[in-house]
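To whoever is on call:

I kicked off a structure prediction for a single chain this morning and the downstream step that reads the tokens threw a length-mismatch warning. I double-checked the sequence; it's 595 residues and nothing unusual in it as far as I can see. Pasting both halves so you can look.
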Amino acid sequence: MNNIRNFCIIAHIDHGKSTLADRLLQITNTVSEREMHDQVLDSMDLEQERGITIKSHAIQMDYELDGQKYKLNLIDTPGHVDFSYEVSRSIAACEGALLIIDATQGIQAQTISNLYLALENDLEIIPVMNKMDMDNAMPEVVAEQIVDLVGCDHDDIIEASGKTGMGVEKILRTIVERIPPPKGDPEAPLQALIFDSVFNTFRGVIAYFKIVNGEIRKGDLVKFVATKKEYYADEVGILRLGMEPREVMQAGDVGYIISGIKAAREVKVGDTITHVKRPCDKAIEGFEEVKPMVFAGIYPIDAEDYEDLRNAMDKLQLNDASLTFEPESSVALGFGFRCCFLGLLHMQIIQERLEREFDMNVITTVPNVSYKLLLTSGETIQVYNPSGMPVTTVIDTIEEPFIRANIITASEFIGSIMTLCLDKRGTLVSQSYLTSERVELIFDIPLGEIVFDFYDKLKSISKGYASFDYHIQDFKPAKLVRLDILLNGEMVDALSTLIHFDNAYNFGRKMCEKLRELIPRQQFDVAIQAAIGAKIIARETVKAVRKDVTAKCYGGDITRKRKLLEKQKKGKKRMKQIGSVEVPQKAFLAVLKLD
């Protein structure tokens, strides 16, 4: 065990984690030249296309230092705030972390929050200043920031470049010297923590684990503590670029287990594996429960695909433990699922993965957040869906969730960022200068206001330099109303939103204008209305597609034309009574793009 090191790489988005991981794999000869490509650990097409890490990836490397052979277990983690749950799970399987900071950008918001996650778990932190080969690197400035943040000496900071390979040897040596080996008793009863899992069509559920105590052999009868299910370990092994089977795995090892589990629900991330004959006294403490931020409905386009969608969601949840969902039904869209996401990017990724990996075409409703309703009877209920709100007469107060937002930006953008936050009903908590050029702004903002387009606007205003991180604070009372969209007098519950009273009129008007552009013209006039309760606050009309019935009348009396037009009008009226309006998927997503 003294020769095992478990560590993860944490950083803000786009600070060069995956590139540095590539170099570590190359220098330790874990990946051959033939198999080598950029972002080798990012196995998903989506990750390669967008240049972001979505899933944590574990891999074992062999390294020799001063004649001693070491096993290094590396976990590359995502940098985006929406995938912070992946980071928290990876950290639980490690004893140390490489904190990567971009020498051209310095410390950003997610750097700080990931560092706190690592410190809470008592990890040994190795600060690495990456991208040192860039012309616009600011090593002196960034080094000062790191010393202030981590509380280390200047000599502890490793200068490196994932692109050129500079400093990578020093990183490996430091990992061996500074990160402690895993603690555990190989003779004790088996205790292994599941930190991730994937679904394989041919082999069932594959669980990734870290052994804390004891050992596991191929063919052992094991028990999953939380689900109380028993299985034979058909195969255990270590994670290289592929999976490599082993006869025995001991305390401190990170690897995988295949036991022919077919049902995705039987494996829970954070569960403990132990032997049936000699079980451990208690389960390892798992991870904190995930805190969803954004709620949206996902519905199959064809109602017959409901069961297929359920299976796809189960398999996706196995691969992404932060996704939670429950069945719900909508008048407009039929049966589907109410899904909880960690953010808007998370929601987009899940939708794309459903389409790519499971060939499921789905409709996603307008995202919203959860609200607390205090009823006149004294009861408190939580509402995730505007259409599930009781009538206004029984509601005493509505409380909405507030977040504490941490924004780090260059000082020249302070004015415009403050205007943006104040427009979103934010209140300034504090403003502090980290350096003469960098400012940290802390705001309290309603979560419902940042769900749509806050992050995009923040990036536009600050030319991409502002970084943003947040955590839920508590619920506060607010003057909220339910805004309904009616098509030909019928409510489309999937387009309902809860919105602050002051913004309702503008938002309703913009919604109607946007829907007028997107809803295809019918054979009859389609009325699009925005309403608060029984009061209509905005209206647009999609004009009917008309056939020119008077084209054949050239000359002659006007009454002939009028007779034909009256006949057409009656037909349109009859059609309107039985006609239904198809709302395209673009219309549901258009709400996100409203400026």
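Update from on-call: the warning came from a stale cache, not from the record. Cleared it. Sanity check on the structure: The domain at 482-593 is CATH 3.30.70.2570 (Alpha-Beta Plaits).
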